[in-house]
Amino acid sequence: MPLEIVRNDITKMKVDAIVNAANQSLLGGGGVDGAIHRAAGKGLLTECRTLGGCKTGEAKITGGYNLPAKYVIHTVGPVYKDGKQGEKALLESCYRESLALAKKRGCETIAFPLISSGVYGYPKDQALKVAIDVISGFLLENEMTVYIVIFDKAAYKISEKLFTDIAEFIDDNYVDTHTDYRRESIRLCAPFSASAGSFTADHCEYKEISVEDDLDTRIKQIDESFSQMLLRKIDEKGMTDAQCYKKANIDRKLFSKIRSDIHYKPSKTTAIAFAISLELSLEETEDLLRKAGFALSHSNKFDIIIEYFISKGNYNIFEINEALFAFDQSLLGA
Q1: Which of 33, 125, 251, 303 is an active site residue?
Q2: What is the pLDDT of residues 225-265, one digit of tens each?
Q3: 104 contacts: CB under 8 Å, gap ≥ 6
Q4: Phi and psi angles of residue 105, each rounded to the nearest 5 degrees, phi first
Q5: How far apart are CA 305 and CA 261, in angstroms?
Q6: Does the annotation count 213 as an active-site position?
Q7: Which residue of 2, 11, 220, 228 sits 20 to 30 Å from the alpha carbon of 152, by its own alpha carbon?
Q8: 209, pLDDT greater than 90
Q9: Strand residues in the chain grouped as ranges (E)
């Protein structure tokens, strides 16, 4: 997927470029900066001495030396004071300048730490939002795979209010996986169907239906494939293919496979990513998922988080992925 949040050691990332949260001297320091210099070896320091330092918000590039990455892009983040000293603009500049350098060198993959979120004191949830906003904006106009690398859970935080709201939504909607769904349907007077019978929501009573009738109904529902429905929805929304797959955090090559193969079977995360891109309602999302052989369930925390964002009308896939990562769930995209 074009933007992915991963838990890893950035010095071990096998990408074209990694970004170093450096100080103005570019001569090494603590945290990510020191770790990158140690892993790269003395050659990195020697080259950095020739660069004449770097101003806050700017970026400079060197070779990767002993690192798996070909390049190291050094950028100096702002020291956080009170948020009123231009810190946000400087942090945004760090990401923009780094991405511009990577693009200029022809990089296809780049890995960022959360710049300024360590000893420089930038609040982690705000630092993450800046990173996501700038990177996602860049990816809408450019083809590149970008990683935000989190070393450990303590280094990652979404807003406390969002985390609490989602946690409460999960608590309110979570159904244990061992629930007897027939009894649950009776209790809630909700529709229940099986090959032998069904409950109606209006009267909450059981009625027999034949296996043949049920089979006929199912056969009639076999019409569009997932690919056909997706392409139809893209046209109905007036979107271009590129707008759709970029907004879905999907790689162009994967979208090409889906477009060319009427019988393509996507993963559940890919199918939901397209539903988010198309800003489908919960009912429409369920319809699209059924075409791929999936459904949303209240026995699955991942599904409940997706339902939370759709019910709130928030279709920003990058913000959704922030939350999914915080709750240790799979991310949306390819």
Answers
A1: 33
A2: 999 999 999 999 999 999 999 999 999 999 999 999 999 99
A3: none
A4: -85, 5
A5: 30
A6: no
A7: 2
A8: no
A9: 3-7, 17-22, 59-63, 71-76, 109-112, 145-150, 192-193, 197-199, 206-208
